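Team,

Forwarding the record for the chain on the shared tracking sheet. I've put the sequence and predicted structure together so nobody has to dig through attachments.
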Amino acid sequence: MADKNLIFTRIDDRLIHGQVCAAWLRAYSNVEHITVIDDKACQDAFMQQMFQMLVPSGITIEIVSVSDAVKIMMAGFKKPTMVIVKAPDTLKRLLDNGVEIPKVNIGGMGMSTGRKKFFQNISTTPAENDILREMVEKGITVEIQIIPAAKTINVAKLLK
C-alpha cells in the first residue's frame, strides 16, 4: 500500500526552483516536507544549500540518494511529503526496490543528448519512454502538468 504521506511525486530536471516552491506548494498546501532524490545532488553541499534557501520557511527538505530514499520510503514518511526526482530512471529504481508510487507528475524534462521532443517542452529518450510505459502498465497514473493551472496530459495516451 502506498504511503499516505506521499502527497506528490514530480519529475523535474531542475529539481527545486521557483515554480516548485511557489505554485506546487500552494497547490498542495498540506505538504510539510520535500524529499529530493538524486545521487549527485545529495553529495553536493553547494546545491543542498541552494535548495534549502529556495524552500519557504515551515517546509523541511532533505536531499538523499536513491538507496537512502528506498529505505525512507519503505518505512513511510513522517510528514506529508513532496518527492522530486530529475528523471524517470530514478523512479524506476525506487519501484524496482518495492517502493509504491501511485501517481507521477512530469514537469520538466528538457532537451539533452539522446532526447527527442515528447510533448511540448518535455523531451525523452527511448529508454525513458520505456520506463514511463512500464509505470503506466503497473497502474501508475503518469501525467504531464508543468504548473498547477495548466491542463493535465495523460502520458498513457502519448505513448501509444
